[in-house]
Amino acid sequence: MPRLRVPALDDLKPEQRAVWARTLAGRRGVVPANVRVWLLSPDLASRAQALGEFLRYNTTLHVRQAELAILVVARRWSAHYEWGVHAVEAVRAGVSTDVIAAIRERRPPAFDDATDRAVFELASALVVDGRVSDETYRTAVADLGERATVELVGLVGYYTMVAFTLNTFEVAPPPGAPVLD
Questions:
Q1: Global model pTM greater than 0.85
Q2: 63-168 has which CATH code?
C-alpha cells in the first residue's frame, strides 16, 4: 500500500488486535484489505467490518444479487481491488460471465432474471445519481420486497465506502485477480 503503512500483525495495538481477531473469526475468515486500512482507526474498523459482514452474508438478498451490486459499485469507482475480489466471487455466486463482462465494459447487461435486473438498475442509479426514479424504486420493491431493497441500498453505500478506502490508499488487487481497464 504505497500511501499508507498498515502495521504488521505483531505491531498491532491491543484494540487493533481485537478487531483483527473478531474479523478473522467471522464469516470472512480473513482480514480484507479495507479492514486492514481501517485498523488505523480501531473504532471505525470494528463497526465497519461488522456492518460489512452483515451486508455480505446476512441480508435477505441472494448472494448472487449482492455480488452483482458490488460489481456495479466497483466498476463505477474503478476500485481495482474490490473488482478483483468480487468478480471471482460473483462467478461463484452464479453471475454469468457475460453480465460481468458487460459491467466491466460499462455496457448494459442482458439479464434472464428480472430480480437481477432490478438489483442492477437500482445499484446503477444510486452510484450514478445518488437516487432512484419512482419506476426503479417500484420495480425493486416489487421484485425484492421492501426489506431487501433497504438492505441493497445499505450494501451499495457500504461498498462505496470500501471503494473509496481502497482507491484513496491505492490498495492493489490481489495477484492474479481479474482487472479493470
A1: yes
A2: 1.20.1290.10
